[in-house]
Description:
The structure holds 2 protein chains of 2 kinds. Chain A is of the alpha+beta class. Chain A is 31% helix and 31% strand. The A-B interface holds A 4-5, 8-9, 11-12, 15-16, 18-19, 22-23, 26, 270-271, 275-279, 286, 321, 340-346, 348-349, 355, 358, 360-362, 397, 428, 432-436, 438, 446, 448, 451-453 and B 3-4, 7-8, 10-11, 14-15, 17-18, 21, 24, 60-63, 65, 100-101, 133-138, 140-141, 159, 170-171, 173-177, 179-180, 182-183, 185, 209.
Amino acid sequence: MSFSSLQVKRKAIVFAFVVLCFSTVAFPAIAVEYMIITANSVETFDSFPISDVEYFDSSHLKVLGIDVSVEGEEKKVIIQSSSADMVISPSRKVVAIGDELITLSAVPSFVGDNIFLPLSYMAELIPRLVGSGSFRFGPSDELMVSIDVHINCEKDVFKLSLPVGREYEKENKNLCLVLFFPGTRINPIFEGELRNSSAISRISHESSRFGDRIYFYYRNVGTKFYNVGDISGDGGKEIIISFVEKKKLPSHDASKNGEDRGIVVVLDPGHGGEAIGAIGPGGLYEKDAVLELCRELKTLLENNLAVKVILTRDSDMDISLDERTELANEVKADLFISVHANGSRRHDAQGAETYFLSYEATDDNARNLAAVENYSRNNASAPNLPEKSGLNLVLWDLAQSQFLEESSNLAETIQQNLNSYLGVRNRGIKQAPFKVLKGATMPAVLVEIGFITNPEEERKLRQVEYRRRICDALYSSISSFKELKERKQESNFSSPFENEQ
Amino acid sequence: MNNKKAWVAVAFFAVIALIVFMAVLLRSGKVEDEKTLQPQENSVNYLADENLRKIVLFFQKVGYDKLIPEYRNIMKTATVSSQAKQVLAELIDGSTEGLLPVLPPSVKINDLLVSPDGTAFVDFSREIITLSEGGTYNELMMTYGIVNSVVLNFPEISRVQILVEGKEIETLTGHIALDSPVLPDYSVIQSDGDVLFTDNLPSLIPDVE
């Protein structure tokens, strides 16, 4: 071999080595997702490979109550839990747990302020610190949590109870509603045909490596779930799903009654569940005060008028703003009233107020409004905008625009009645871009029944008699709305939206 | 000879791999540099009168239902977005005249961009939601405290898209829709027909009521 070829060979080896070194940095082994699961929480993180050893960021051990810190120039890693300590000395590859010494395959690594520990032995050593059985630690795909889900079915309302810390996602398909539980195994549940539900024919259960799914099959295509709310408590979470079969919508029932068809009113008690709303100085929650009032108003209305009243929520649960309006559209309500209690930093702020939707006069909106008018002309049933995509999304946002005049008149009536029934100083009606009013395809207003942050008004809102006065004001407004609507229908029976069919 | 050729080939590919890798390294290094090197503006004396401008902010006051204007100076920095950021920082900082704030004081402005069509995108930290007290009135004061303070001071801005932690949000506390840009609302300002004075936008508040 000549001198030059030897040199080339040497260079080639050096280069190959350099490339190898860089390639391990530039293209490290693929990170693996790990999970630490305790009784009430799940921590997921990716492993961090450093020169062929899988590491993980020790800060994730906080979920187990383990604190990891570095001490001294020697960079001793101290791993502490409430019951035991462990010290790893980076130079010695030995760990001391109590009196016991264990030899380790790799030492901790430091990236910035973070302390990285090798996964290989930590998964075995951690149980010695916090005791085994209280948690599970390992690659996500090997660690699925098994839970019990109890399904309760009463008419078409299903209640599922979930243990603490478990989450779910819902997917609405044409034929079924699917609840997906990521990273979770569901222990065998009731599966099969249902006889006593008019909306759901069958429940089934399916496992995948990402988690389990529960399928609720609709008896008829077109059945919709309108309302999924969660109630969180100490023992976990309760999912409530209510199914409505299209043929059984309340407005349809009412039409069969003949003489006094009546109207459908949707009352929307604001907030709910984790969304508390405003809080009074005496601890009264907006979500509770408005639910109470809406229940009372429903009774008052149904006992005295030919109206069907539907509440968007009849318990302390959180529903999205869109779902509230969707329900009102779904049941073809004649009237949507969202009920709230106000809050201000100024504790002197007081009085009941009525709002309706404001439209901002931008070019975009003018164009969109034109689109709505066009759409309405071509589709007689325009106000029902079920699918929220593409153009419909724009229409959804502007659905209320067709009803602004009626909404404004209604707001005016309500405000006048509130002022006279409550004897408060005269407050006018107001406009603002309320999210919950945007998609409503009927006259819709938002009523602030008073300032819960005002100590005096908070006290009054706790009194049945005072709430009764608010209910009377709303009752009288709804009653005049109904009369007006009926008079209109008599004199003008071909309303532009009732030509079809 | 064959052996030698093989090694040359290996070396050749190794060199190319190394060059590509170094190029990637250098490029990422350069991006770092651009991030850390902010344009130096220290040469301007921002305490001099000619480098200050008067702006209007909106706060609340006991006994009044509407937003109350308060005036102060900000630095005439180079861009509209940096000035608008100052306006919002002053708004968060609160009144110097004993008025009540419209925003929780620990809210941070993560970012503020002004698009050519006159929309200001303001990204707030999560405290704007987590520390808000709830109630339509509070939410109206927050929203229009922000939107009016930003729009009234800058003819270049006509509407504000409020973001939280970089994301579009439905509402702050369940009422006012923030899923599209919000226009200013002059009807929530205590006016009495006053002239609102700002440096480059002497604007008469329309007498809405």
